[in-house]
Amino acid sequence: MNMCEKHKEVERQVVEFTENVRHVGEESITDYLFWKWADINKCFQHLDFSHYTKHQESKTSGADFRMEIWLVGKTQSLPLLFQAKKISKEYQNYIAAINYPKKTKNQIDTLLGYAKTKRKVPLYMFYSDSGFKQHKSFRGGVHKVPGIYIAHAKTVKKIANQKPGFKLSRTQLLSKSTSFHNLFCFTQEDLDQNNSDIIGLIIERLSALVDSSEEVSNCVVSSELL
Predict the structure, then answer these.
(1) Can you state the percent helix, strand and coil of the chain, rounding each to 5?
(2) Residue ranges of the chain with pLDDT lower than 70?
């Protein structure tokens, strides 16, 4: 398998995991992902990731975990921050989850502020165990679309800034998201047009998630990372 297929397979496994362990929380899903990403790293060595403690999440980072994508030797890295949310139902109290805690927006504001200070890309990662569509494959079987999605934190905050009583759906959240594996899936035409700058292609895809004219430009020299 190439890098793209490896990430697709991990997402399929995560969906099966959450289907069979119905009440599993975000932390356990993230731990499962860390295990699977570590396995992918044995082949491609392109990810570095670690948890933030609960204290760090609430007081400093606003994020559950950080990730750095290394794909140009080891001289450059794209640093990402992730706040993870499970969105397994079409309607749940997602406004409260994003405006956590107690409608203060402290979590998302901390995430955005920390990301700006540390030159990292602030993202939400949505785990959707029953939010994927099923369709028949060309060979007659049923194909499950992977259920790990990412959205830019600024876009998520705009979606959550609704009038009282507004019901935010899973569909609305995912409409502003992309599957995580899409960051690593490129055609030869993509590579030819971008001079095989994979980090540049990933930045373009992350920029497309920002619901404004702002672009993501957080690729930094490794010595600048903290």
Answers:
(1) 45, 20, 35
(2) 71-76, 129-146, 211-226
